[in-house]
């Protein structure tokens, strides 16, 4: 999972893990995460079997509970900011020809609604674009339209998720600065994942989204029939749910389905744990903010220990700032990454259903051919077309699956490795603060003892 909150600017390319469905811009390492209760989160992360060398589809061990694993595999790479990874970023950046930035949110208030638009800046060297740089403004509904068009055109590809209409509901207020910035980062990630996808990046609707002015895009949206008419037969059938069990589903896709059921369960657990940790950390931070000033007030009435009390208050203040920084890193980086893959799990289950529906159409035709021999020629032609359709769907999903899995492994490793590293830095900072204070108190105590011993 490419942990795509960085300051506005051309996104860095995905590390060498495949450039598609799970591709996008990598985020800078999180500024921190909850350490006081970090073990449950790291234990949960350990339940992810993310070994690149594995050939099977198991990402979670069915026999491993969240409490049984409390450390990363030795094979987990160092921080994404290591020199090796930086070289990968630089090498792959040279291969990219499409850079997209989402920034500069603006509020718009009308008589009937209030909404936010975002500036989308595109820089490209592709020949099919008339210019090398474009700047347009888009609102959330435009992103929804693009996603629906991509799903319609590529029903068996893994379309990146969009942030939900009320992302992180309960943690931030709608249209607050925090909400808007969280959504901006998610929309930036969404577009860059598409740009890095070998198929989606050349979609005509994607190009129109990046280049058309507001009135041109509005006109383009109105073209064509209604939603249900535009949806292909496969998508319509899936929308009304897949009927029955696919008879001839290849083993690989059965394994994918089993994998995603386990993945969905585990990633939802991780998401809930991370939110609970953030909530507890925020409560701890709010209490700590009140704890320091109490010692400062206390020092005013205790002249003999006033300096010591002020020193304690200063240490608490420094630890409070360190906690705030770690908490910000958790809310800006880890929480969005985990929730993004909660959404990805839903998307992948839908993609697998659409593939099964195509397979189901072929199975139904084959059964009909057996029972209606008089129409053998007609059915044979239909079966040939469906066989081609199934093969195309299978190949598309296979390629996207491998790409998505590689990026998911990278994102998970990066996210949880950063959590561990930032917690270590947090504890080291707090420990150094208190050790320095205790050392000063020891020196003061020796000075007082020496003065008392003198005649």
Automatic annotation (TrEMBL):
<dbReference type="GO" id="GO:0000407">
    <property type="term" value="C:phagophore assembly site"/>
</dbReference>
<dbReference type="InterPro" id="IPR042131">
    <property type="entry name" value="BAR_SNX7"/>
</dbReference>
<dbReference type="InterPro" id="IPR042130">
    <property type="entry name" value="PX_SNX7"/>
</dbReference>
<dbReference type="GO" id="GO:0035091">
    <property type="term" value="F:phosphatidylinositol binding"/>
</dbReference>
<dbReference type="GO" id="GO:0032456">
    <property type="term" value="P:endocytic recycling"/>
</dbReference>
<dbReference type="GO" id="GO:0000422">
    <property type="term" value="P:autophagy of mitochondrion"/>
</dbReference>
<feature type="region of interest" description="Disordered">
    <location>
        <begin position="1"/>
        <end position="38"/>
    </location>
</feature>
<dbReference type="GO" id="GO:0015031">
    <property type="term" value="P:protein transport"/>
</dbReference>
<keyword id="KW-0813">Transport</keyword>
<comment type="similarity">
    <text>Belongs to the sorting nexin family.</text>
</comment>
<feature type="domain" description="PX">
    <location>
        <begin position="96"/>
        <end position="217"/>
    </location>
</feature>
<dbReference type="InterPro" id="IPR036871">
    <property type="entry name" value="PX_dom_sf"/>
</dbReference>
<dbReference type="Pfam" id="PF00787">
    <property type="entry name" value="PX"/>
</dbReference>
<dbReference type="GO" id="GO:0061709">
    <property type="term" value="P:reticulophagy"/>
</dbReference>
<dbReference type="GO" id="GO:0034727">
    <property type="term" value="P:piecemeal microautophagy of the nucleus"/>
</dbReference>
<keyword id="KW-0653">Protein transport</keyword>
<dbReference type="GO" id="GO:0005769">
    <property type="term" value="C:early endosome"/>
</dbReference>
<protein>
    <submittedName>
        <fullName>SNX7 protein</fullName>
    </submittedName>
</protein>
<dbReference type="InterPro" id="IPR001683">
    <property type="entry name" value="PX_dom"/>
</dbReference>
<dbReference type="InterPro" id="IPR027267">
    <property type="entry name" value="AH/BAR_dom_sf"/>
</dbReference>
């Amino acid at each position: 999972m490419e942990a795509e909150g960085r300051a506005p600017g051309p996104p860095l390319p995905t590390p060498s893990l495949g450039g598609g469905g799970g591709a996008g811009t990598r985020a800078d390492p999180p500024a921190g995460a909850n350490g006081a209760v970090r073990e449950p989160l790291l234990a949960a992360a350990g339940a992810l079997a993310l070994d690149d060398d594995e050939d099977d589809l198991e990402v979670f061990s069915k026999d491993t509970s969240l409490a049984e694993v409390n450390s990363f595999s030795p094979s987990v790479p160092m921080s994404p900011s290591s020199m090796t990874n930086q070289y990968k970023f630089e090498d792959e950046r040279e291969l990219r020809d499409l850079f997209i930035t989402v920034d500069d949110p603006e509020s718009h208030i009308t008589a009937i609604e209030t909404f936010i638009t975002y500036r989308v800046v595109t820089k490209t060297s592709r020949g099919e674009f008339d210019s090398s740089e474009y700047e347009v403004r888009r609102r959330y509904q435009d992103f929804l339209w693009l996603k629906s068009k991509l799903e319609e055109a590529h029903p068996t590809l893994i379309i990146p998720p969009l942030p939900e209409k009320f992302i992180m509901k309960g943690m931030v207020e709608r249209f607050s600065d925090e909400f808007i910035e969280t959504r901006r980062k998610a929309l930036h990630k969404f577009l860059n994942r598409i740009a890095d996808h070998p198929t989606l990046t050349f979609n005509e609707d994607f190009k129109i989204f990046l280049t058309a002015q507001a009135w041109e895009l509005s006109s383009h949206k109105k073209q064509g029939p209604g939603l249900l008419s535009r949806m292909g037969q496969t998508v319509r059938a899936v929308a009304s749910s897949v009927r029955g069990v696919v008879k001839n589903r290849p083993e690989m896709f059965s394994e994918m389905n089993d994998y995603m059921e386990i993945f969905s369960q585990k990633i939802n657990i991780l998401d809930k744990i991370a939110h609970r940790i953030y909530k507890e950390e925020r409560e701890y931070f709010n209490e700590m903010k009140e704890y320091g000033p109490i010692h400062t007030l206390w020092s005013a009435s205790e002249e003999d220990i006033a300096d010591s009390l002020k020193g304690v208050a200063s240490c608490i203040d420094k630890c409070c700032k360190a906690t705030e920084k770690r908490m910000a890193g958790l809310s800006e980086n880890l929480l969005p990454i985990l929730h993004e893959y909660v959404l990805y799990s839903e998307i992948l289950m839908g993609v697998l259903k659409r593939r099964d529906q195509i397979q189901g159409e072929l199975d139904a035709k084959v059964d009909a051919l057996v029972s209606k021999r008089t129409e053998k020629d007609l059915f044979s032609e239909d079966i040939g077309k469906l066989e081609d359709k199934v093969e195309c769907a299978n190949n598309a999903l296979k390629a996207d699956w491998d790409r998505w899995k590689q990026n998911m492994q990278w994102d998970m490793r990066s996210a949880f490795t950063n959590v561990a590293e930032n917690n270590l830095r947090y504890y080291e900072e707090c420990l150094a603060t208190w050790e320095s204070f205790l050392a000063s108190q020891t020196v003061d105590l020796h000075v007082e003892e020496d003065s008392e011993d003198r005649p």
